[in-house]
Amino acid sequence: MDQATSASPVMTFSVLTSSAPVLAPRVGRLAIPGRKTLATPHHVPLTSRGTVPHVAHDVMRDHTEINSLYAGLEDFIAKKDAPVYKTPVANHESPLKKFICVADEMPLILGPRRFPPIPCPPANTSTSIALLTSVGFTQLSAAEYVKSIQKLKPDIAIGMVDLANKQPGSKRRAKMVDRTHAWTQEALEQLYGNSAAEENKSKSAFFAPVLPLDNAQQSLYLDDLESEFRWDISGLALYQSASLGFVPESLADLPRLLFSEPETPHNILRDVSLGADLLTTPLLGASSDGGIAMEFTFPAPAALQESKSEPRPLGIDLWLGDHATDTSPLGEGCECYTCKHYHRAYIHHLLVAKEMTAWALLQVHNFHVMDNFFAGVRESIQRGSFEQDVETFARIYASSMPESKGTGPRLRGYQLPANGPNQPRRMPKIWGQLDDAIQKYAESQSEVATPDTDASGLEEHGFAEKL
Amino acid sequence: MLCHRLLARRPPRTSYPSLSISIANMSTAAPTRNSMPSALTFDRHAKCSTTKARASTLHLPHGSVPLPIFMPVATQASLKGLTYDQLRETGCMLCLNNTYHLGLKPGQAVLDAVGGAHKLQGWDRNLLTDSGGFQMVSLLQLATVTEEGVRFLSPHDGSPMLLTPEHSISLQNSIGSDIIMQLDDVIATTSPDHARIKEAMDRSVRWLDRCIAEHKYPERQNLFCIIQGGLDLELRKQCCEEMVARDTPGIAIGGLSGGEAKEEFCKVVDTCTDILPEHKPRYVMGVGYPEDIVVAVALGADMFDCVWPTRTARFGDAIVSSGTLKLSHKSFADDFGPVEEGCTCVCCRPTDQGGLGLTRAYMHHITAKETVGAHLLTIHNVHYMLTMMGKIRQAIIDDQYPAFLRKFFSDIYQGDKSKYPEWAVGALRGVGVDLLADS
């Protein structure tokens, strides 16, 4: 088997096993000096305003194995002169890590936008992208973003990319490539170029974006990645699974971070089999919010492989009343904190009672399941049985996650797409104390013989005619 | 809806054997009352030589609780986002659940099947449950109290329901809490109807007898009576005498924290503690602002509960020794100090001491935006309250409580004695501490 290592000054990525440079599953090790080493393939825990949703810092430290974080700059720059830039730090420390109060050894990935991003109605420009802060839409210029990387010192910075909200036409596609190309070039120049003095060169590893377009459409850009930019980039950021097929062989030894929204573990396995090293898995948080405890292991347990029964569900919906008195753990034999200390009946009760603890405990469990899943993936690839294991997994488990019946936590503006006209309420009204009064008021009014509508309304109802 | 039926599952009794006795005995304590079994022991360690403050230890079936104590309220079997290990970390030995809420969700049948609230929520320390009467009256429209119990309309389908003392005790027996409360006839202390207040007091005594009769596990659950009587000190005295005669393991002073003037509140507590036996724990229900607690301790109370510290945390307010900090205010946006300097909670402790080293700036960043902000501030506030209680207790043991009181008020009002609340000055003067005197 091939052994390849890419080493930029700031990060080392060694591929331990791979049958082919691209389009094949591979196990790797991503090492940043002074940080926890990441075994790949691995999922990247996503943060919202610097926290893993519902997981308090002490819970993360004590009860999860979370060993990397992704943060979007848009979560921190609602105000001009944002506080995150003023964080007091020692010379080597990352102000962003210090601001969100995570340990220095936690590898931190910074991108311009949170993931998954909320589509922004304002258009990107040739020098900036539109993003959504907690106070509204704004533009982030490529130059500002580079400055943020320099100031905030994340371990890995994702290059700014021009993505279209909907399927782009040919003109838009050309713009996407040109802009991303120019932004990448400028960023690399600012971060590592000759214009910067040696001691001012950025210590952040730069992951260059690959656009979710065909190979041919971005060939000029990819050529530059292979040649001019090659020694300044430490990895690639991809935005669709198909892009894994466009990675040039000469860039094959770079780690690939795939920003996608796999809906099932089957999708994750497909992306891994195409050579993804780091993956975003928003389905983890979505499951917790929906009251779903994920329940799958990879490779599928031998005991299940024998049975020819119904496909196994990928998770259990704890909203269901079946769990009301069930004191068994969420997952049979699960070793996570939640399963060792609590049970289904409790989580069910918490969900029904709309208590926040439900989501916290589900997150702990679901992270554990996902961590184990990826550990299983790595072992399977190293054993050389990955393809077979994927097939078995697909046969044994259901093809989709169970659909949640319940309501999740209250969503905030920055977590929601912008409201369009005529959209229904996202959450039912909860404050109803004055409803009685309103009703009484309405009733008292209706005693007076006045119709509820104007003249044209009456006409429409055939009540009377306008003269 | 099913839950409601469970709550009111038992058919109302047609006759109350204990009722007639207690009415007959209203004016004089029963001479032949059996002493009640108790599942607690109450060790008194020290009494303040100036005030009526006491330091003691309450040994309950799930561990020992240092008194005076503040009890955080885990209304629906969970303390707002926290795991029970996080709650344990704050030092909490005793927390509350609400009978009314647990009766609705998950309901008595589930509690019985799971084996009680401790097992349900994975909490191996002590629980206290209220009787549900307060929620009936405060949360529900059209709740009416009759001799039988509280009649109310189900909030789900509007059908008429009845909660009797028997239902309440039966539910609390199913919950299995270490301290259970009698169902009392709760009315607002501010009610102008004196006859109604007297009726509520008398009825609470009669209901106590029904609760005692219904209580199935006195050897492992401690039933506390609840002193009623509004702001009428004579009624309160009568009620104390009646209830003390029933010899419950502990005694609560109820019907306060309903918007009455603080002076009145202090008078009631003061009057009751003068009569109540020294060897029993005294619980002032629903009281929880730090100022109220330190004064009530001086008046001889031992136990307190309030949702305020945890509720205010969710709004982004941190309790600190100088009062409360509204962390959502923009002045904290780039304040990189801990929530409170020197605080030993896991949030404020620096990372090199095993804490999280959280800053005000970051709390400002997530407060009221991420659930984690609520979790972390809840930890801080509960820890603050428990630490404060620990300091109170130590001050009493060292016989330094008057000095503690002076420092406490000086910290909150930055030494400006003109700002001290009159009610606190007055109440403490009554127990021999003059806050305004030069120390």
Using brief descriptors, characterize the structure shown.
heterodimer, A: 467 residues, alpha/beta, TIM Barrel, eight-stranded parallel β-sheet, four-stranded antiparallel β-sheet, 16 strands, B: 439 residues, three-stranded antiparallel β-sheet, 17 helices, globular, tRNA processing (chain B), tRNA-guanosine(34) queuine transglycosylase activity (chain B), TGT (chain B)
Summarize this, please?
The complex is a heterodimer of chains A (467) and B (439). With 467 residues, chain A is α/β, with parallel strands linked by helices.
Chart the SSEs and their pairings:
The complex is a heterodimer of chains A (467) and B (439).
Chain A: E1 4-8, E2 11-18, E3 26-31, E4 38-40, E5 42-44, H1 57-63, E6 69-72, H2 95-99, E7 108-111, E8 128-133, E9 136-141, H3 142-152, E10 156-158, H4 170-192, E11 205-210, H5 219-226, E12 235-238, E13 256-258, H6 265-273, E14 278-280, H7 282-289, E15 292-294, H8 302-306, E16 315-317, H9 337-341, H10 344-352, H11 357-383, H12 386-396, H13 435-446, H14 455-460
Parallel strand pairs in A: 5-14, 6-7, 7-10, 10-11, 11-12, 12-13, 13-14
Antiparallel strand pairs in A: 1-2, 2-3, 3-4, 8-9, 15-16
Chain B: H1 2-7, H2 17-24, E1 41-47, E2 54-60, E3 63-67, E4 69-71, H3 84-89, E5 94-97, H4 99-104, H5 108-114, H6 117-121, E6 126-129, H7 133-139, E7 144-145, E8 150-153, E9 160-163, H8 165-175, E10 179-181, H9 194-214, E11 222-227, H10 233-245, E12 250-253, H11 262-275, E13 282-284, H12 290-298, E14 303-305, H13 308-314, E15 317-320, E16 323-326, H14 360-366, H15 371-397, H16 401-412, H17 422-430
Parallel strand pairs in B: 4-14, 5-6, 6-10, 10-11, 11-12, 12-13, 13-14
Antiparallel strand pairs in B: 1-2, 2-3, 7-8, 8-9, 15-16
Helix pairs in contact in B: 2-9, 8-9, 9-10, 10-11, 11-17, 12-16, 13-15, 15-16
